[in-house]
From TrEMBL:
The active site is at 60 (proton donor). One of its GO terms (molecular function) is oxidoreductase activity. InterPro entries: AKR, AKR4C, Aldo/ket_reductase_CS, NAD(P)_OxRdtase_dom_sf, NADP_OxRdtase_dom. PROSITE patterns: ALDOKETO_REDUCTASE_1, ALDOKETO_REDUCTASE_2, ALDOKETO_REDUCTASE_3. Keywords: NADP, Oxidoreductase. Pfam families: Aldo_ket_red. It comes from the Eukaryota. Belongs to the aldo/keto reductase family. Substrate binds at residue 121. This is NADP-dependent oxidoreductase domain-containing protein. It comes from Arabidopsis thaliana.
Amino acid sequence: MAHATFTSEGQNMESFRLLSGHKIPAVGLGTWRSGSQAAHAVVTAIVEGGYRHIDTAWEYGDQREVGQGIKRAMHAGLERRDLFVTSKLWCTELSPERVRPALQNTLKELQLEYLDLYLIHWPFRLREGASKPPKAGDVLDFDMEGVWREMENLSKDSLVRNIGVCNFTVTKLNKLLGFAELIPAVCQMEMHPGWRNDRMLEFCKKNEIHVTAYSPLGSQEGGRDLIHDQTVDRIAKKLNKTPGQILVKWGLQRGTSVIPKSLNPERIKENIKVFDWVIPEQDFQALNSITDQKRVIDGEDLFVNKTEGPFRSVADLWDHED
Ligand code: NDP
């Protein structure tokens, strides 16, 4: 595929405008696997780093800590309306009657009155207590239209300001767009130079759906070590930046918001210092040419049952689009 050139977009924009008119801050703090340290990371990010965007999920098991961090940051003088908080509806809650109670539980854990963004975490419904990998009967039918209607109702009732999805394919987004009264404001996907996923990015842009890039540094244990990638390292040295900053900036220059996770105060602060410089075109294209394109978060352990289905391979999960 020809290199996508997105260098003119998102260069030094500190936020992106969503279809709803709300703004999403371009860099947010990821909180997956942050555990009991999430509160400290959130306070550091907001108060010392200047972050205004926090990404969490019920499934991360750290919403209480994230909520405590937000509360402490607000005691330091911040208003709720200055923050953009995202959470996600887990797979066991993907039936229409479970959507609102799940959101209410999330708001309670976070000690918030509303979310800025509520996302469907994965487009697969799991039975409560499902095994990893799933046994026969653990992956259930997903009523996408019914669930989306309930997401729309949460938005109408101002419990969430925007709704969106994660881990969708073009096929699934097309299906959703076929019945949606409210178009998803955001599609959150794995994206980094080792998994550009240009196809989804282009489809979302065409449909004015903002993309947030998750695992922008190649993710955590078992992920892809992009921090020590030769190309990333060479460009970092040349521009006098860190590899983390190059990876964040690459995402911004593609027009996506980016949510790096860190528990380390110095790295938290470093990852958002990306607004007063650019990756020159030639280096940007070198990052776009990294070979061995591969997802890190492919969903296999959660949703694939090779013998019983309904999804027998990773390719099945992603609608054979990769
Ligand atoms: P990231 O790509 O953000 O990488 C995080 C890892 O990089 C950690 O090990 C961190 O260690 C390290 N790190 C952070 N900053 C630097 C730096 N400047 N230099 C070197 N190493 C650094 O991984 P995630 O998979 O956590 O993705 C980010 C966020 O995206 C998640 O936390 C979550 O909020 C979201 N997400 C959403 C998914 C979805 O399905 N919607 C799926 C996966 C992620 P340390 O903490 O020690 O700094």
